[in-house]
Amino acid sequence: MYKLFALLFSLACIICARSGTIAVAARPPLTFDHDVAPIVFQYCAECHRPGESTPFSLLTYKDVRTHARQIAAVTRSRYMPPWLPIRGPLPFAAEMRLSDAQIAVFQKWIDDGLLEGKPADLPSAPHFTPGWQLGPPDLVIQAQKPVPANRIGPRYVLELRFAGSR
Ligand code: HEC
Fold first, then answer.
1. Which residue, judged by its Cα, is nearest atom 31 of ligand 1?
2. Same domain, 90 and 53
3. N or C: which end of the chain has fewer CB within 10 A?
């Protein structure tokens, strides 16, 4: 009985010691260039860049560091990136849903001291087509007078006058 206890005790010690070493050795501090930028460029920059209807850009280390705590909160609550489809049996192409591991990156980066990292690790900045993303539309309708956004609803009527059929 004593031997069994001693064996279990030493096994437990080995496991403790091992997991202790693993935790220290396998977690170098996260950096913007290596860990945060790939997520932000893929999932946020499309809307968070100049010319879009977002309150600030998320394209550089400075941009993201300034909003780091807010970003950790809105990704944790899954408010950002906005992605409404519920998880189904088949994934959507180009899903804008962050994984739990990606969400955790923001908090770990804060805990590690918001490091910038090495420029060599930084992915190339995303490129976006300015203006219409699907090419110019066939028809652009201009309201006759400015319409306050809170009045747009099912009862707002736009008069369209076409010269000929379309
Ligand atoms: C489809 C466009 C879109 C994408 C993609 C997107 N955002 Fe946003 N974001 C918005 C808009 C629009 C607002 C302003 C309106 C609002 O707060 O809902 C906003 C607001 C925010 C805010 C401010 C929230 C507040 O409470 O004031 C934060 C922080 C943010 N986004 C972070 C992110 C992060 C981080 C990502 C990527 C992981 C992301 N967003 C992806 C459109 C987007």
1. 80
2. yes
3. N
Q: Both 1 and 43 in a single domain?
A: no
CA of 91 from ligand 1 middle (Å) equals: 22
Domain with 24 in it: 1-28
Query: Mean per-residue pLDDT for 114-134?
Result: 91
Domain tally, the chain: 2
Token pair in block for residue 115: 């490091």
Please list every protein residue whose CB sits less than 6 Å from any atom of ligand 1. Answer: 43-44, 46-48, 53-55, 67, 70-71, 74-75, 80-82, 96
Dist. CA 41 → ligand 1 center (Å): 13
Q: What confidence category does residue 3 fall into, taking pLDDT thresholds of 50, 70 and 90?
A: low
Say which residue, 30 or 12, is predicted with more confidence. 30
Q: Are 117 and 32 in contact (CB under 8 A)?
A: yes
Q: Among 5-9, 52-56, 145-149, where is mean pLDDT lowest? A: 5-9
**Separation of alpha carbons 48 and 164, rounded Å:** 41
